Amino acid sequence: VESAMTSSAGEHAARVTRAGQVVFDLAAGSITDLFQSAVTSVGFFTMICRLSLPLTGAFLGTVGVARVLGVAIGHLLPPPPAAEVLAEGAVVNLHAAAAQRCYTVRAFPRAPELLEAQMRDRLRHWTDARCAAQWLIHLRAGMQLCVLTLSLIVLVASTAWAQAGGGLSTTDLVVFFFY
Questions:
Q1: CA dist 117 → 12, 89, 96, 110, 131 (Å)
Q2: Could you give the CA distance from residue 127 to residue 121 in angstroms, rounded to a whole number?
Q3: In Å, how far are 70, 157, 160, 179 from 165, measured between CA atoms?
Q4: What is the tens place of the pLDDT at every residue in 22-81?
Q5: Going by C-beta distance under 8 Å and a sequence separation of 6 or more, which residues neighbour residue 151?
Q6: Cβ neighbour number for residue 25 with a 10 Å cutoff
Q7: Alpha carbons 149 and 146: distance in angstroms, whole number
Q8: pTM, entire model
Q9: What is the Rg, in whole angstroms, of the alpha carbon atoms belonging to the chain?
Q10: Among 85, 76, 98, 173, which Cα is nearest to 124's?
Q11: How many CA atoms lie less than 13 Å away from 160 in the CB half-sphere?
């Protein structure tokens, strides 16, 4: 029974640790999105003003480097403390369930009460982590919506400018659109 409980605790802890990693990945992704949005805005300005072809190429290269750096930073940062807290909470939950089934009140009068208090504390950490994940999901969605809106505005403005005899060519518009 103890071996089975330990195995179940390990599996549950691994699942909860992955959930904590998702929270961390969302945070790293949000920072990356923010950086990319700033670089993209500079690139849009460059393409609209048609400063020079090398600057446009530099913009595309900078965004590519930014994406690589964002992924690298996400892997280099230490694991999130939320994952450790959640994994520990999963083990506490399983031990508490076993304690309530196996321990007698006469032998351990306060064991179920103490473990139940620990369970409530871990559940609060779990709830905080879930709220953080939901907030980060909304943040990333909002940032992506802003970038998409900016892209459409610039695309329409660039098209109108090109039709009016501006400096942008049809090739620029096609590359910009697919990028």
A1: 20, 11, 10, 11, 21
A2: 10
A3: 38, 12, 9, 23
A4: 555 555 555 666 666 666 665 555 555 555 555 555 555 665 565 555 555 555 555 444
A5: 40, 44
A6: 14
A7: 5
A8: 0.34
A9: 26
A10: 85
A11: 6
